[in-house]
Amino acid sequence: MQKFNRIKSGNKPLYIDVYDYLFKRIMNGEFPAESKLPAEVELAKTLGVSRMTLRQALSLLQDDGLIKSVHGRGSFVTSNRQHHTTIGLETIGHPLYKSHSKPIDDVEINFRIDVQSDYMKQVLKQDAAAVVAAERWYKSDDQAVAYGFSFMTIEAIAELEVDLNDQAQLLEMLERNVYDLATSISYEVKHSASVNSFSQKYDIAGSDECVLLLESVYSKQAHPIVYNKFYIPKDFSVITINATK
Asked: Are residues 177 and 71 part of one domain?
């Protein structure tokens, strides 16, 4: 590890210098993706700073999505150290692939047909004879790393000529086709610690604390084609919004 030399500049706090130093080591690959950082006692001693100063720097790195803290094991560099992207939620497209640090290589779907509840009526903004409720598990290297829940009215399913006897066709509609049809999308970002209460088929990897993306996908109608809830574990969450004037 390259030596840590503090450059004094004005009233810049020491933990910012430590952050800058570790940031550079992570970004240049000295601490590779998925590698474990040295133990806090060892790292603080090596850098010549207090553990409190080190923890402040580590907290900033964790906020930036560059490291994750695993209870009882230490801090690990995420697989998303080069996470800055030019594609964000301001563009129409599947938000999970733009907000997740893991490469998604498989999606499993399960669905049922429900009588419309008051909640479904509220989020879909229309009356419906019935609603298709679809669960999706997003996998990376055969491990579930995110969970999604979707609502579509049975009328929308019929209008889009989706054959519910063909799960692959329903999955294609939810994953790709609705975004081709979309003219606008609205998002609400929340936090949740309930993903594994809902996803009963698989335990979702990573932290129980998740970013919850609530997505309404619109075509030309005043009501959504589909309403989605995506649960992305905090360890894997990278949300980018590119604002322009």
From this structure: no
